[in-house]
Amino acid sequence: MTAYLIRRTLFAVFVLWGAVTIVFLVLRLVPGDPAQLILGSDATQEEIAQLRDQMGLDRPLPVQYGKYLSDVVNLDFGDSYRYHRDAMDLVTERFPATVQLAVVATVIALLLGISLGVVAALRVNRLTDRLVSVFALLSQSMPSFWIGIVFILVFARQLHLLASGGKGGLDRMILPGITLALPFIAILIRLTRSGLLDVVHENYIQTARAKGLSERVVILRHAVRNALIPIVTVTGIEFGKLLGGAVIIETVFAWPGVGRLLIDSISARDYNVVQAAILMIAGGFVLINLVVDILYGYLDPRIRLGR
Amino acid sequence: MDHPLLSVQDLTVQFRTRAGTITAVDRVSFDLAEGETLAILGETGSGKSVTAQAVMGLVPRPAGQVTGGRIIYDGTDLLTRPPSEARRLNGTELAMVFQDPLSSLNPVLRVGAQIGELFRRRRGASRAEARRKAIELMDRVGIPAAARRVDDYPHQFSGGMRQRVMIAMALALQPRLLIADEPTTALDVTVQAQIMALLADLKAEHRMAMILISHDLGVVAGVADRAMLMYAGRVVETGELREVYETTAHPYTRGLMASIPELDGPRERLQPIPGAPPDLMRLPSGCPFRPRCAYATDICASQPPTLAAVPTRPDSHRAACHHAEEVLADVVAG
Ligand SMILES: Nc1ncnc2c1ncn2[C@@H]1O[C@H](COP(=O)(O)OP(=O)(O)OP(=O)(O)O)[C@@H](O)[C@H]1O
Ligand SMILES: [Mg+2]
Asked: If 0-12 CB within 10 Å is exposed, 13-18 middle and 19+ buried, where does residue A213 land?
């Protein structure tokens, strides 16, 4: 298990390095002058020259890269020109709100997705199964910003049941949480249903039945846990995507997270903040995958104990 | 005693597949007395496992279905009971050991938990009690250091030890009938002998009835009282093991006898039956074994043979072959 963890950690560091390097390359290698790009077309020559000097753009690329890497390691992304504050501080302030939203969405998705998937598998090819499938199809195919707007109109404006936006208590998280969760719910329904239908044909399920265990025990104790193994991986990946997907939902629901900061910063060309936000999201993604790998090992003893 | 422990009568099991419906078990009948061991023998696809599945109520649905017959256990027909009720006999009265012990054990549960859940869920035992009994059983079936290994997972055991775990599980609640479906096929030759010895031992100890399924007539020789040979879902020969082996009356049985590998004999004596096992979707008219049979004549194509008494032991030995007497004469002549 220790060797496995070390391997996974090294890999995580490698992925982060990759993300950092790509952000660097995108900003340096796109055609045109990065300083010009950052300052926009209405900047004066002096402003551009000053920024070029500040960014060290006249020095050779490897030197720039070295300086950039050491800045990143120190989490030094420079200041936001809009707020005149450290870019990373701005992002870290917003990060908990985004994580909170993603966690709520994940919990909703796991609860709904797995139970609906189990129900569909138990009633395979019957009406319940069909209805669940239609629900999954709809959740996946409707654009989330649209669902978000519909939710706001129906539940907040018309029914006054739930708050439509802004940060606050649990009730304010439900609408954006469900909206963000829907595509993930669809994936979980499919994965649980098909996983369970596969697992049910395994020999050890026959063994469980030969032991005279009730069908409920056979499914919940012997089948679901095996069917959940792939779900752990997907949950990790999807949680990472939720961090990114929050960008749109946060905008629709006026949720003050990293996503909304990212969008605002892109439109304001506040590139230092953009860099910091992207790295924060990438870092979160990598960290989650690491946690998932560990969980995966816990669920599947064949991996934990090494073959 | 007034009635056999298990009486299977005209059991028929069909599978609906994309290509059509096949009859995997075709009007199979046999009785099993308390404490008796029956060997069900036959080539691959002959319907041995499906017969066992039917007795355990494990025929995979919805593709498979018992379409006829009766399975009378201890006086009641299991097929007339709702499946959930019939299933309650599993584990307590009927138990089964499967061919591939690795895939038959749940990979994510500790072996102790898999053995122990019989005590916990069927007998309401506490966690500690179930664990203690699991260790006891593992010890009984010859797993070294049982107290330590009880918390291991199936993949940490060798093939032979896994099969011992399966056997411990099957024996946990002291069933009256144990079905072992090719319990040694997935194992090394030396381990095979150990597992067979263990089964014979346990059977004597618990006075269990046993159905021992195999495609290898050699494996069951020391253990079974009676033998039943299956081909294309039908019983083709049945009788006491000695009669069937020594006064064989069906060409198929004779062919299988010739293909028993002898450990000390020369290799070239091994003769598999010519031809391939039949396609259940396209069975020939008359006797299904006819295309592969050296004795086949016109009558074999026109009339399906039925089980009939073999003259040497008409009370117990029966074979379904139009040429049974010729086969018998050839076998006796050597
Ligand atoms: N789940 C299933 N779906 C469709 N057909 C099946 C299924 N299980 C068994 N069969 C068919 O039933 C027939 C009998 O199969 P069975 O497993 O009883 O054979 P067997 O005698 O146990 O052979 P083996 O020695 O290979 O285990 C075969 O033709 C097989 O293809
Ligand atoms: Mg079989």
From this structure: buried
